[in-house]
Amino acid sequence: MSQGDWQRDVLRELGQGTPSSESPDRPTATPRPTHSEPATDSKAGSPSDEPGPAPGPAARGPRDPRVPIQAPQSVPTVDPRLAQAMGRPVHGDSVARRTGRSLRTLGASAAREVAEETQRARELQQPVTTGRLIAVTSVRGGVGKSTVAALLSRIFNHYRHDPVLALEADAALGTLPVRLGAESVRWSCAELAQILTPSMQLTDVIGYLVPVADGGWLLPASQGRVGAPLDVRTYRTVTLALRRYFAVTVVDCESLPGEVARTAMDTAHARVVVAPMTAEGVNGTRIVLDWLAQLPHSALATTVVALTANSPDTTLDLKTASAHLRETGVPVIPVPYDRHLAGGGPILNAMLGRDTRDAATVLAAEALQRAVRVR
Ligand SMILES: Nc1ncnc2c1ncn2[C@@H]1O[C@H](COP(=O)(O)OP(=O)(O)OP(=O)(O)O)[C@@H](O)[C@H]1O
Ligand SMILES: [Mg+2]
């Protein structure tokens, strides 16, 4: 793809046409940042020269290149006084369960488990031709979207050797940066929307992103303050531009039916809908799936449900709940209650319960399988 045509090509691929305000001949940002302090020392290198300017708070049209841009301040994701009060993370599995597991894996089921894991690894490592977007959303708030998005991004990073991005598209003081272990954030979607240009290299771009400890990159939706919500235009500009650099982008969306969430669901290559393990949660999710069935681009065929138990006391029958959602034709992957996830704070791979890790791996593989099918 020629650089001059990059946005047009991506838009055509998404079936959206090329908005005149986002003409590839008239990029919305300055060709190269004039000053900035990159946020990172990355595995892929640091910005090739001094990276970029920080623009105004919202992407509302082409920025006047004569207006100097202030670099945003680095802001801690958790107030240091609170961070000190965080207890030690709890393991997802009890000691007894961990011991039982390791004994069992010496037994007869070991070969089958290895075969399944090999198959999953193959699916997760499959090459992608252009960057794939996987959007995570839900029918209402607080059900586990950010947790699932963080798990997916960790799984993709674990298995893939190409760059993976976790993109927060929920400006409502989201939790993705904390879940991915970011201690501070700086550049956010609104600023990058004005900085990104087709001539930038990956090494330039990652200077504006937060490196994640276990690999990969994070772009937060905000600097953790109450501010202007992310708008659709910003979301589209950022995702269209960043797709060039990242093999897989996991988008942590706001809840439906928010405008950005609907846009993200409509334009992603695959969707993960997080359903809480309650009757009302499953009922509402079924309604969303029926809505997705009416969208173009075979939206349902590229949708996966994560049926999440974020309480140890769920009473809804898992089989019945899964069957109700599966009637729409989508795969349903149960994500079990996990003490480590329930505790909040950074998600540490080594502390996750085995079943949680397995569920996240299956979820990531199923989502990617669907995402690569879409042209
Ligand atoms: N599998 C799980 N086991 C235990 N607790 C979980 C699990 N998944 C999520 N949780 C807990 O549920 C709560 C909500 O999760 P999360 O912040 O991911 O939801 P959200 O949908 O992103 O919320 P919001 O709409 O506010 O962005 C958190 O306290 C989280 O720790
Ligand atoms: Mg969230």
Question: What would you say this structure looks like, in words?
Answer:
Strand 5 (210-211) and strand 6 form a beta hairpin. The chain is of the alpha/beta class and 375 residues long. The relative contact order is 0.17. The strands form two sheets. An eight-stranded mixed beta sheet has the order 5-6-3-7-2-8-9-10, sandwiched between helices. A two-stranded antiparallel ribbon has the order 1-4. Helix content is 36%, strand content 12%. Bound molecules: adenosine-5'-triphosphate and magnesium ion. Adenosine-5'-triphosphate binds at residues 138, 141-147, 170, 174-175, 255, 308-310, 335, 337-338, 341-342, 344.
Low-confidence stretches: 1-60
Biggest sheet overview: 8 strands, mixed
Output the CATH topology of the domain at 135-373.
Rossmann fold
Structural category is alpha/beta
Estimated share of beta-strand residues: 5-15%
CATH uppermost class of the domain at 135-373 = Alpha Beta
* Tally of individual helices: 14
Backbone CA Rg? 20 Å
Small molecules bound:
adenosine-5'-triphosphate, magnesium ion
- For the record, what is the CATH homologous superfamily label of the domain at 135-373? P-loop containing nucleotide triphosphate hydrolases
What value does the average pLDDT take? 83
